[in-house]
Amino acid sequence: MFNNLSERLEGAFKNLKGEARISELNIANTVKDIRRALLDADVNYKIAKEFTDRVKEKATGEKVINAISPGQLMVKIVQDELTELMGGVEAQFDISAKPTIILVAGLQGSGKTTFCGKLANYLKTKKGKSPLLVAGDIYRPAAIDQLQVLGEQIGVEVFSERENKNAVSIAENALKYAKEKAKNVIIIDTAGRLAVDEMMMEEVANIKQAAKPNEILFVVDSMTGQDAVNTAKAFNDRLDFTGVVLTKLDGDTRGGAALTIKYTVQKPIKFVSSGEKLDTLDVFYPGRMAQRILG
Ligand code: GDP
């Protein structure tokens, strides 16, 4: 994951190898290389600059204490800053409401439907919940079939109304059905388009208004880099979502989306998805991710 970024950062720290103390010159060279590594990972210029300015400031003020070498010190500073950039601590995912209603939105192909299946599986097997999946994509019958197949694989019931062309009413009916069947988590999959469009936004906003979800999760393909960040902004402006799900982290992702979505939209990444199998869903921990990036 983020192999290129990891390698580039490692290269940046090499500037400090063998140095007995931290100096203005070796900080400057290292910081320059870190900035290049971030830009290469598709981090936006302003964020990369602010990041390296902070690293520089911290490193300049530091004395190398006892056993810590300048290289180790710099790694520690960068790790702390990466953690902070990605949100610091893990975000809350509150499933205490009875029932908990989770609305899932994102562009078509982002991995939304797959994520709904993974989340239902996670909540069932790890949290002992009794979820209901709701097929809210009224435009693509294949999306309903896909959710049905996922539901069967994990033993979770799927609510759908193939003849109903009103996504808001499907959501409302699903909530009633969930109540009758004592389901305590309702996961609503919604329609996605290939690009952000007004009709889609309006529809999801209407479902939000009707279903009053406890969590609104925005699903985005991490392979799309800065586009992922821009799409997140568009969805957040309209939906004021509660968290982000980054998918396809098993692919050749450069890292920009993971590093900068939190900073850009001020909403935390809550889950990361890294595979097509249903158990490849993880809660997102900024500290662990920073540690992984730095090897
Ligand atoms: P939707 O249109 O947003 O509902 O997207 P889908 O859930 O149908 O996913 C689109 C494609 O991406 C499918 O082929 C999925 O199997 C695949 N996919 C979803 N999540 C992941 C992931 O985390 N990693 C990989 N490699 N593929 C994924």
From TrEMBL:
Reaction(s) catalysed (UniProt annotation): GTP + H2O = GDP + phosphate + H(+)
GO cellular component, one term: signal recognition particle
Catalytic class of the enzyme: hydrolase
Residues noted as binding GTP in the record, renumbered to the chain: 106-113, 189-193, 247-250
Enzyme Commission number, as recorded: 3.6.5.4
Molecular function as annotated in GO: 7S RNA binding; GTP binding; GTPase activity
Record carries keyword Plastid: no
Localisation per UniProt entry: Cytoplasm
Record domain SRP54-type proteins GTP-binding: where: 268-281
Highest taxon in the source lineage: Bacteria
Domain notes: Composed of three domains: the N-terminal N domain, which is responsible for interactions with the ribosome, the central G domain, which binds GTP, and the C-terminal M domain, which binds the RNA and the signal sequence of the RNC.
Family to which this protein belongs: Belongs to the GTP-binding SRP family. SRP54 subfamily.
Complexes and interactors: Part of the signal recognition particle protein translocation system, which is composed of SRP and FtsY.
Task performed by this protein: Involved in targeting and insertion of nascent membrane proteins into the cytoplasmic membrane. Binds to the hydrophobic signal sequence of the ribosome-nascent chain (RNC) as it emerges from the ribosomes. The SRP-RNC complex is then targeted to the cytoplasmic membrane where it interacts with the SRP receptor FtsY.
Protein name: Signal recognition particle protein
Lineage, uppermost ranks: Bacteria, Pseudomonadati, Bacteroidota, Chitinophagia, Chitinophagales
Gene from which this protein is expressed: ffh
Stretch of the intact protein here: 1 to 295 of 445
